[in-house]
Write a structure and sequence with these properties.
Mean pLDDT: 87
Distance between the termini: 87 Å
Radius of gyration: 38 Å
Number of domains: 2
Low-confidence stretches: none
Structural class: alpha+beta
Number of helices: 9
Helix content: 55-70%
Shape: elongated
Strand content: 5-15%
Order of helices and strands: HHHHHHHHEEEEH
Strand order of the largest sheet: 1-2-3-4
Number of strands: 4
């Protein structure tokens, strides 16, 4: 049994419609032969309860003209993709969503074919300008016409699928109207964008933090090596060839490639071994301060963002 209100098929023993909740006529009640709904009823069913009067007015004007015409539709102009999803124009929304990627592919192919031709950049620029204007303005101008053609096509398809008029209205009610998919897609894309923004902020900050930790470990090992070199020089009045000859017994961190003794000036050159500082270095330079030796840290390769505090203070 079909519901006289929405056209939904129900069990013959049901008292109320499963979809709209309206009471169903008794099984033994003689029902009049249904007449074909008017075009306005078809439109009302496929449009749904949201902005029905607005679209009915537009559709009736198109029918009177016998063709569609240009107009202006703000949702189609501002939120084209989400408006397409909201009005269940799935294919149109998908095409609109994929269109920038398709244009980018076409432009890339054009660039490959054109090679180094000076005309190619001009053509590419014109294509992008034309696409941006078309993708932004045309939906606003022809949004009503696009939705009208979508509804007309859906009505004809449903009418061809079944001769039962109430079922036709029921199918149009279910397949037309509006959808909450736009909201969910918006929330998903917003969440993805939000995560992307957080990642763009957090990943570099975390990388800087870990890099500073590695250079801090390297600086600690270098100061220990400097003490060994200083003690060796005081005892032998000569520079050791390596920090190990000077008596350094510590283990270098994995982020350090080597700590080399410069035989010309006694500086310790600390070379890093991990990204993003691979093969970059900082140095500890010895200088006399009375009877004491002072080690000054500096670097020409590594920025202050990654250097230990003592090295930044003495650059």
């Amino acid at each position: 049994m079909y519901c006289p209100a929405c056209g939904t098929s129900n069990d013959p023993s049901a008292l109320f419609c499963l979809k709209c909740g309206n009471p169903l006529p008794p099984v033994n009640q003689v029902q009049p032969e249904p007449t074909e709904p008017s075009l306005e009823e078809y439109y009302t069913a496929v449009i749904g309860p949201q902005n029905t009067a607005y679209y009915l007015n537009k559709f009736q004007k198109f029918d009177a003209l016998g063709k569609t015409s240009a107009g202006w539709h703000w949702p189609a102009f501002f939120i084209t993709f989400y408006w397409g999803l909201y009005r269940k124009m799935w294919r149109n929304a998908l095409i609109y969503f994929l269109s920038p990627y398709l244009v980018a592919i076409a432009v890339g192919i054009l660039g490959i074919i054109g090679g180094n031709s000076p005309v190619i950049p001009l053509i590419v620029g014109l294509v992008y300008v034309a696409y941006l204007l078309g993708a932004w303005i045309l939906p606003g101008i022809y949004g009503d016409a696009l939705y009208y053609k979508h509804c007309k096509k859906l009505i004809e398809k449903v009418k061809a699928s079944t001769p039962d008029h109430q079922r036709q209205l029921g199918e149009l009610t279910g397949r037309g109207g509006t959808s909450g998919a736009a909201l969910w897609v918006f929330l998903v894309l917003f969440f993805v964008a939000f995560i992307g923004i957080l990642a763009a902020i957090a990943v570099p900050a975390y990388q800087a933090y870990t890099t500073r930790a590695k250079t801090a470990q390297a600086y600690q090992s270098a100061t220990e090596a400097a003490q060994s070199v200083e003690a060796y020089y005081v005892q032998h009045q000569a520079l050791p060839l390596t920090i190990y000859e000077a008596g350094f017994t510590g283990t270098l961190p994995s982020a350090v490639k080597e700590i080399r003794v410069d035989q010309k000036n006694g500086a310790l050159i600390v070379t890093m071994a991990s990204m993003p500082l691979t093969d970059k270095s900082f140095s500890l330079w010895p200088s006399k301060d009375g009877n004491a030796v002072v080690w000054r840290c500096a670097s020409l390769d590594i920025t202050d963002d990654f250097l230990p505090k003592n090295c930044r203070a003495q650059r």
